[in-house]
Amino acid sequence: MTENFDVAIIGTGSGNSLLTADYDRLKVAIIERDVFGGTCLNRGCIPTKMFVYAADVAETVRHSSRYGVDARLDTVRWNDIADRVFGRIDPIAAGGEDYRKSLDNVTVFNGEARFTGERTLEIRSADGSSRHIVADDIVLAAGASPRIPPIPGLSEIPYHTSDTVLRIRELPRSLIILGGGFVAAEMAHIFGSFGVDITIISRGTLLAREDEDISREFTRQYSDRFTTYLNADILEAAPGGDGTVRIDVRVDGERISVAAEALLVATGRTPASETLALDVAGVEVDAAGYVVTDKFLRTTVPGIWALGDITNPAQLKHTANAEARIVAHNLVHPDDLRAIDLWPIPHAVFAGPQIASVGLTEQELRRAGTRAYVTATHHYGDVAYGWAMEDTENFCKLIADAETRVLLGAHIIGPNASMLIQQLIQGMKFGQTVDEMARGMLYIHPALSELVENALLKL
Ligand SMILES: Cc1cc2nc3c(=O)[nH]c(=O)nc-3n(C[C@H](O)[C@H](O)[C@H](O)COP(=O)(O)OP(=O)(O)OC[C@H]3O[C@@H](n4cnc5c(N)ncnc54)[C@H](O)[C@@H]3O)c2cc1C
Ligand SMILES: NC(=O)c1ccc[n+]([C@@H]2O[C@H](COP(=O)([O-])OP(=O)(O)OC[C@H]3O[C@@H](n4cnc5c(N)ncnc54)[C@H](O)[C@@H]3O)[C@@H](O)[C@H]2O)c1
């Protein structure tokens, strides 16, 4: 039997936030193949940042003698930290599911959806049973999953991804991390701060898509802190004896074997479009598998919409949330469509040190042949609060258009970068000039925001 719905939503991450009061009068199906609530809540942004906070506390203790405060880090109670994190999160996921199930107009399906026709979905449950539904509108909010590169031998050894590594019950003594992006940077900080011996294997430098000065400094600090193999070709994975795993790499022409108790694969995330049989519905995807949408977030098939990691390569929660707000409105207001406007998309990497960035990098400007830009860099160590922190390495780098004097890019490495950047995002968004941002208001003295003020003044 096929059941009919007004709207079907595939994925309960950002997709679950679509149901505004406008949807109360509609019959809605929500389909989820995994834990209710999606990546950010269950295995992404939120748990990682809760672990990062504990990691920052451990690092503060470790470095406290720099300030004349002698302290010793005795023990890290991993299970207590994990229980605190998941004791908060898991009930939210369960509560969210119960709430949706309690609504008269909503049916929650636990299973994997795929298209069997332009408006027809088959939902397969874990027990092998399947149901079919038809919906007038369908929202693709199925996110992305860890990408596992075809490394010889990898499928024969145990490894973690970001989906599983935070749920382990015992800290390994050593951990190899494959990849040099967001997940690698944050997980190295978490596990390294808790005393795990970290080896990072990256095919390039670390955070290579950041501004070149930021990536260089981050790579330098991580190479001091951890064992790193950069510009490495991963040759093979194999059991390493004594229950360890072994990764063979080639660096500068030399073959090196690295062994550790555990392995984390952090080599990017692939949009979940493949699982959905989108070709059956005629929904177009691009070469990388992202669902193609227009500015109203309509796919190439009328009545099918997409949002979040399945359509946006930025793969960030704040972009997915903004897209969910647009789809929520457009789906029920076909005569008053709103266009998505995400510019400028900021991001932060909650590593040790933190990174935050918005707008263009200097290498992007150079590649585009832009000549009329100016840059300024100011160090934490050159403002009063930075003296208090004894910071000698971190900085804020700004790039502005030399003629219009608006910001083209802002990049910060160092403590509180994710918060310091927010005023620069606002300035860019609302077209303020560097001069207005620098002198149009007072900066609290001697707050760390004087770092941004001074970088702006330099420009
Ligand atoms: C470790 C980690 C840390 C992160 N930290 C941050 C951060 O600090 N800040 C930030 O902005 N972003 C962060 N992100 C990215 C952020 O989590 C994602 O951009 C965001 O969660 C995407 O939301 P979404 O709704 O598109 O997808 P998701 O939240 O992934 O939701 C998709 C849902 O669809 C389900 N699904 C998939 N296919 C099917 C199917 N065929 N049938 C039924 N259900 C299906 C999935 O099970 C999933 O629950 C992080 C990601 C990771 C992995
Ligand atoms: N703080 C945050 O906002 C945050 C945190 C974690 C994840 N995320 C999101 O999740 C996404 C996925 O994170 P990620 O770190 O997995 O991806 P990423 O794209 O940031 O980094 C992937 C890394 O893997 C390497 N890599 C890719 N394919 C490889 C291969 N075949 N062999 C060897 N190395 C390979 C890349 O060179 C890169 O260093 C991010 O792009 C980001 O959008 C965001």
TrEMBL record:
The active site is at H445 (proton acceptor). The keyword Nuclease does not apply. Its EC number is 1.8.1.15. Belongs to the class-I pyridine nucleotide-disulfide oxidoreductase family. One of its GO terms (molecular function) is mycothione reductase [NAD(P)H] activity. The lineage of its organism: Bacteria, Bacillati, Actinomycetota, Actinomycetes, Pseudonocardiales. Binds 1 FAD per subunit. Residues 345-455 form the Pyridine nucleotide-disulphide oxidoreductase dimerisation domain. This is Mycothione reductase. It comes from Amycolatopsis pithecellobii. Residues 5-323 form the FAD/NAD(P)-binding domain. Disulfide bonds join C40-C45. Gene3D superfamilies: 3.30.390.30, FAD/NAD(P)-binding domain.
